[in-house]
Design brief:
Layout (H helix, E strand, L loop, with lengths): L3 E5 L3 H13 L3 E5 L2 H8 L6 E5 L7 H10 L6 E6 L3 H10 L3 E5 L3 H17 L6 E4 L2 E4 L4 E4 L2 E3 L3 H12 L4 E3 H9 L7 H15 L9 E4 L3 E4 L2
Parallel strand pairs: 1-2, 1-3, 3-4, 4-5
Antiparallel strand pairs: 6-7, 7-8, 8-9, 10-12, 11-12
């Protein structure tokens, strides 16, 4: 079955180029030209990946990302940002986007990100259906997490972080390794992004986020999972 891609982009030239490029690579593609149309298409829950422009008419890409995650949609999202929109990149990741590409970009660069993201979205938890530590139970296959029997809302990124920590439990993991393995970045100095996501994750799974038992900080190096 072909991968279904939704492109939400108001620039006609970019939208057509992406549509033709993805189709040439063997993907099925839907294109939405504004945020309202894009939101409606994304909520149909038939796509495996969304390529989402930040600046859109009617509803911004950031708002679409935020609304989809609030609705529980876990579809991987790559955001397209203009050069200089550093705050949009960070905010997009914070709202639940999985990756971003800065305009202008080559289609080969985008395809590399797409393929890496699709591998990560299906690969990290392939050998592990469930895992328990303390009062937390993670069902990776069902994308559900519970603490003390109560469902906790984990983002796609938080599931990936937990999966990576669990697969490497007991090992000290540098922030750069997390950025490379979980985010797919090879040469990006966004280590604060890692710290921000881990701080949010600790609030959800730890008994005390201020004194974490499971995701432990190794000062000046990174983190270690002890669950």
């Amino acid at each position: 079955m072909k991968v279904q891609v939704l492109v939400i982009e108001d620039d006609e030239a970019i939208a057509v180029a992406l549509r033709d490029g993805f189709r040439y690579e063997g993907y099925d593609v839907d294109v939405a030209r504004d945020g309202e149309e894009g939101m409606e298409a994304a909520c149909a829950d038939r796509h495996d990946l969304i390529v989402l422009d930040v600046m859109l008419p009617k509803i911004s890409g950031l708002d679409i990302c935020k609304k989809l995650r609030k609705k529980g949609r876990r579809v991987p999202i790559i955001m397209l940002t203009a050069r200089g929109q550093e705050i949009d990149k960070v905010l997009g990741l914070k709202l639940g986007a999985d990756d971003y590409v800065t305009k202008p970009f080559s289609f080969l660069e985008l395809m590399a990100r797409v393929e890496a993201l699709l591998r990560r979205s299906s690969g990290h938890t392939g050998e592990m259906d469930t895992y328990e530590f303390g009062s937390v139970r993670i069902d990776f296959k069902g994308r559900e997490a519970k603490k003390d029997g109560i469902v906790i809302d984990l983002s796609p990124r938080e599931f990936k972080l937990l999966a990576y920590f669990i697969e490497h439990r007991g090992k000290v993991i540098e922030r750069e390794e997390l950025l490379s393995s979980v985010w797919g970045y090879d040469k990006v100095s966004l280590t604060r992004t890692v710290d921000m996501h881990i701080a949010k994750l600790r609030k959800k799974i730890e008994d005390s986020a201020a004194e974490p038992k499971y995701i432990v900080t190794v000062h000046r190096v990174g983190y270690k999972f002890t669950g």
